[in-house]
Amino acid sequence: MCERDKEFLERAGAIARKAAIYGKELAREGVALLEIAEKIEEYIIGEGALPAFPANLSVNNIAAHYTPPSKACGIDYVLRRGDVLKIDVGAHVNGYIGDTALTVEIGTSRWRDLIRCAEEALNAAISAIKPGISVRTIGKVVETVASSYGYKPVINLSGHGLGKFIIHTGLTIPNFDNGDNSKLRVGDVIAIEPFVTDGRGYVENGPCGNIYRITAKRINSPHLQKIANNFRTLPFAERWCSALFNDHCAVLKNLERKRAIYCYPTLVEKKGCVVAQAEHTMVIEENGARILTSAK
Ligand code: MN
Ligand code: MN
Q1: Any idea what the CATH number is for the domain that residue 239 is in?
Q2: 296 within domain boundaries
Q3: Number of H helices, E strands in the chain
Q4: 0.90 cut: is pTM over it?
Q5: For the domain that residue 127 is a member of, what is the CATH number?
Q6: I need a labelling partner for 248 at 20 to 30 A (CA). Which of 167, 171, 189, 197 fits?
Q7: Is residue 57 part of a domain?
Q8: Is 5 a residue of the active site?
Q9: What spacing in Å lies between the alpha carbon of 220 and ligand 2's midpoint?
């Protein structure tokens, strides 16, 4: 990676983190998720980046992959006291992506330890990183911190390598010791994202979370072309398509039926229990991990 690319990554990372923190400040009882998502995304654009994926605002037992629908296509969710909200934000500059997440509890402190557990697991994993460390060792660190709090890591969610215009590529960084001896190398760009829960530690697919990506091998319709031009290979929100098409709800449904696009299912904790998440994007350097998603 050349210096210029590193600079794009750093800018994207800082903007993503500041957007997530801004989202946390907005998250209050009685506030609609749609308002928070739109403001996070506007913030990213205002800072000179673009959303790398829709602002993920997943509540309670939903671990990930939910963004609010537009008013035209769905029903908005309004935050309630006691909700546990994961704010997962991606920003990119010229395709260089920062991916970061935090968890906030709305008006109560019942889940303070769970939220702390996710943050501590992330910090411990980051501290353990040096070139040559295996991904299973990072997973083991996450698992150990989770156990020390009496919680479980979500074993079928993981961190990942990041590429240009690609959110998940290369390495998988597990949240437990999965036996994978793949090693981190200097220059690797990865996201680590512990999810912890008081439940089973396993998520399954729920209903469509209003986030899509293109699955068609060939762009064979004007509608699909428009989506490809706007969002490239990155995930996009149903909401974002309202500016592209008249009756975009029907356009998306039609493309989904033809399997030209795919709706990500929400990922829901198997026992219905609450999940907390923390995430940073980092680059591996000679002396350890350098966090790219810090709010500078
Ligand atoms: Mn993320
Ligand atoms: Mn991620």
Answers
A1: 1.10.10.10
A2: no
A3: 6, 15
A4: yes
A5: 3.90.230.10
A6: 167
A7: yes
A8: no
A9: 30
H-helix or E-strand containing 25?
helix 3-26
Same domain as 159, residue 255:
no
Whether residues 226 and 153 share a domain: the answer is: no
Whether 90 is in a domain gets the answer yes
Q: Which of 105, 238, 279, 280 is catalytic?
A: 279
Q: How many Å lie between the centroid of ligand 1 and the Cα of residue 89?
A: 6
pLDDT per residue rounded down to tens, the chain (296 residues): 788 888 999 999 999 999 999 999 999 999 999 999 999 999 999 999 999 999 999 999 999 999 999 999 999 999 999 999 999 999 999 999 999 999 999 999 999 999 999 999 999 999 999 999 999 999 999 999 999 999 999 999 999 999 999 999 999 999 999 999 999 999 999 999 999 999 999 999 999 999 999 999 999 899 999 999 999 889 999 999 999 999 999 999 999 999 999 999 999 999 999 999 999 999 999 999 999 999 87
Q: Which segments within 94-216 are labelled E, that is strand?
A: 96-105, 152-153, 159-163, 166-173, 189-192, 195-197, 203-214
Nearest ligand to the C-alpha atom of residue 160: 2
Q: Which residue has the tokens 């969610």?
A: 157
Host domain of residue 143: 3-206+266-291
| Helical pair 222-231 and 248-257, crossing angle rounded to 10 deg | 100
Question: Within a 10 A sphere around the Cβ of 223, how many other Cβ atoms?
Answer: 20
Residue 18 near residue 47, CB atoms below 8 Å: yes
Which ligand places an atom closest to the C-alpha of 64? 1
**Angle, helices 33-46/3-26, rounded to nearest 10 degrees:** 150
